[in-house]
Design goal:
Elements: E1 3-6, H1 17-27, H2 33-48, H3 54-62, H4 70-85, H5 91-102, E2 106-114, H6 115-124, E3 129-138, E4 141-147, H7 154-167, E5 175-178, H8 184-187, E6 192-196, H9 200-209, E7 213-214
Parallel strand pairs: 1-2, 1-5, 2-3, 5-6, 6-7
Antiparallel strand pairs: 3-4
Helix pairs in contact: 1-2, 1-4, 4-6
């Protein structure tokens, strides 16, 4: 049995769940749609080139949750995942998840998105193990801050190694599927890097290193 690790956005789903969540918050009136979505697009453009300071993005994206309970947010997230995210799940991704499950591999989703989103989406995929950005709560309400190491770039390696040690798992035979240049540090750590629908920077790296490049639909 090996680890089969999947990035979420643009890997398992055809889209970015945080940007889609921003649109949902605009739809339900939690944010000023025009200005919030414009800023979100600007920050995600920086992400695409590997230049985003994730701390800055999380401060921005979590501001609408300040003072809300996890239960209040979950009440909105569940129909959002069903109506918006589920139609975007790649059938090829589900086939690969099923193949790893049949082989007895342990399946893990690791994402630089907020944990409340990633867990809800992973649950729709039938995946229990999740590593994502953890949110701080004060007196039962979201504070707008994160806690612990962010699962972004090298932080994904740190969190994964901590999790693997605690779980008695090994990266020796692990597979990792990702689309993003930001995941290069983790792709370099696993035995079987798998590049899925890569951005131009990751495609260049994959071709130079002879890594498999997969086209999922």
């Amino acid at each position: 049995m090996a680890l089969a690790i999947f990035d979420l956005d643009e890997t398992l789903i055809d889209g970015d769940c945080v940007s889609l969540w921003a649109q949902e918050m605009a739809k339900i009136g939690w944010v000023d749609g025009e200005s919030f979505l414009r800023k979100d697009a600007e920050l995600m453009a920086e992400y695409a080139f590997g230049r985003l300071a994730m701390e800055d993005y999380m401060t921005f994206s979590l501001a609408p949750l300040v003072g809300r309970t996890a239960e209040e947010v979950e009440h909105v997230v569940e129909p959002f995942v069903e109506d918006v995210i589920e139609p975007l799940i790649y059938s090829d991704a589900m086939r690969h998840v099923a193949e790893h499950r049949k082989a007895g591999d342990r399946i893990l989703v690791i994402s630089a998105s907020a944990e409340f989103l990633v867990k809800a989406i992973a649950a729709r995929l039938g995946i229990d193990d999740v590593l994502a950005i953890q949110l701080d709560e004060q007196h039962g309400f979201y504070s707008g801050h994160t806690r612990g190491v962010l699962t972004y770039r090298e932080g994904k390696v740190t969190r994964l190694r901590e999790w693997a040690e605690a779980q008695g798992e090994s990266l020796e035979a692990a597979h990792f599927y990702s689309d993003s240049i930001n995941d290069l540090p983790l792709l370099e750590q696993v035995a079987h890097p798998q590049v899925v629908n890569p951005d131009p920077l990751l495609r260049e790296q994959a071709e130079g290193r002879g890594w498999p490049v997969l086209a999922w639909r």
